[in-house]
Design a protein that fits this description.
With 428 residues, the chain is an alpha/beta fold. It has 12 helices and 19 strands. It folds into 2 domains: 287 residues, Alkaline Phosphatase, subunit A, CATH 3.40.720; 89 residues, Gyrase A, domain 2 (2-Layer Sandwich), CATH 3.30.1360. The strands form 6 sheets. A 9-stranded mixed sheet has the order 1-7-6-8-2-9-18-3-19, sandwiched between helices. Strands 4-5 form a two-stranded antiparallel sheet. It has a two-stranded antiparallel sheet with strand order 10-17.
């Protein structure tokens, strides 16, 4: 018996020696990147915490339409915008997300579309191209994670457009390279793990991102059972996150938003080169960049009144409520869809597929198309229970979060006064 024990022990020891290097290698390749920013200052360690969650493409009415009991519970415990939040124009992923974390309209922070051309740099930006998406010189404004880090407060980002780029010399203390297939439940687990770090290392501002509902909305449409299933899946995850937060016994405010809504595309592809010669233009999707003022004016006149599916403007004469008239990255002339139509510069003969890329689409003006409106829910020790607010612009989230965290902001488009009323202590 003694001899058997010795051999067994020997086997376990050898197995442990063999496994240990593998385990260390696995730990060393953890997806979380720590940037080595300074720890939280003594003053910032006493501040509250904010977790900002984006459920990409989660339309403002999905929770009621498909049933989302956990999100509904958060609305009763805190604040919500029952009729939705108004995304900045255009209501697409990169511009809208970056507006939320900078408090600036896209024309002011510079990310005017998911992909666009910069006539000054003479370069194209694409959210899918690491060369540009990870280059901080494309991004204006001061994202909340940069604002926090500059003021001695640690931040973390489990995905968010722009969070991988070095902006103003800063990245979050903890971040991950975007991997859309990263397990959903493990994202919540990582957020909770960050909150269990020692006070000097623990991030006070955390972003968390999910794209499930957006993918389903594009592929199947906003009314499809697959989209309903994606909504309920994320609702379950928000319940798990809230339960995890409650168990922490820390002063944590949870803010859940989306970047835009979704609508079923109507009709076929609308191609602008049907009515005008764009051979001398740089084009990105529906965005038009003329080589000269004469070319811009000629294209404008050629497109004017040609279709009920869009309006065309010279950029400086765009409707003021779009806040899209001051940045050359927006192009000129500017075509604005009048409905849920898919508009591109060129026909399929110029490299575009003749079929529509998706059943559902977004990017439209939320004031003209309510289905573009996003969600807003907030709950926690700083938020009044049962508070509701009328539709507001997503530029106003930035000053709200900065206020909760005690961070000083520079000049932004958002106003604290819009959301001040949902705070328990709204007088300060």
């Amino acid at each position: 018996m003694k001899r058997f024990y010795s051999r067994t022990t020997f086997c376990f020891v050898m197995l442990a020696l063999l496994i240990a290097p593998v385990m260390r290698a696995a730990q060393s390749t953890s997806p979380v990147i720590e940037t080595g920013n300074p720890p939280n200052s003594a003053a910032q360690q006493g501040r509250h915490y904010v977790i900002l969650v984006s459920l990409d493409g989660f339309r403002f009415d999905y929770a009621a339409k498909y049933g989302a009991p956990h999100i509904a519970r958060l609305a009763s415990l805190g604040a919500s915008a029952p009729q939705g939040m108004i995304p900045a124009y255009p209501s697409v992923t990169f511009p809208s997300h970056y507006t939320i974390v900078t408090g600036l309209y896209p024309e002011h922070h510079g990310i005017v579309a998911n992909s666009f051309y910069d006539p000054v740099r003479r370069e194209r930006f694409s959210y899918g191209d690491p060369k540009t998406a990870l280059d901080g010189t494309w991004y204006g404004g001061t994202p909340l994670w940069v604002l926090a880090e500059k003021q001695g407060m640690r931040a973390a980002s489990f995905f968010w457009p722009g969070s991988e780029a070095e902006i103003q010399g800063k990245r979050p203390s903890y971040y991950l390279k975007f991997a859309d297939q990263f397990p959903d439940e493990q994202r919540v687990d990582q957020v909770i793990a960050w909150l269990k770090l020692p006070p000097e290392q623990r991030p006070h501002f955390i972003t968390l991102y999910y794209s499930n509902v957006d993918h389903s909305g594009h592929k199947y449409g906003p009314d499809a059972p697959e989209t309903a299933q994606a909504v309920r899946h994320l609702d379950d995850l928000m319940g798990k996150l809230w339960d995890g937060i409650a168990a922490m016994k820390l002063p944590i405010d949870l803010v859940i938003v989306s970047d835009h809504g979704m609508e079923t595309v109507q009709g076929g592809r609308v191609t602008l080169d049907t009515w005008t010669d764009l051979s001398r233009f740089e084009t990105v999707g529906p965005l038009l960049y003329a080589n000269s003022e004469a070319d811009a004016e000629k294209a404008y006149e050629s497109l004017l009144g040609k279709s009920s599916k869009f309006n065309v403007y010279r950029r400086k004469k765009l409707p003021r409520e779009l806040h899209f008239d001051s940045n050359p990255r927006a192009g000129d002339p500017v075509v604005v869809s009048t409905g849920p139509y898919y508009i591109t510069a060129h026909s399929s003969g110029a490299g575009e597929s003749a079929s529509l890329p998706a059943v559902g689409q977004h990017g439209y003006d939320a004031r003209a198309m309510p289905s573009m409106k996003a969600i807003f829910y907030a709950a926690g020790p700083d938020i009044r229970a049962g508070a509701t607010i009328a539709p507001f612009e997503n530029i106003d989230i930035y000053p709200l979060i900065a206020k909760i965290l005690g961070l000083r902001t520079g000049k932004i488009d958002g106003k604290l006064g819009v959301l001040r009323g949902i705070l328990k202590n709204s007088e300060n």
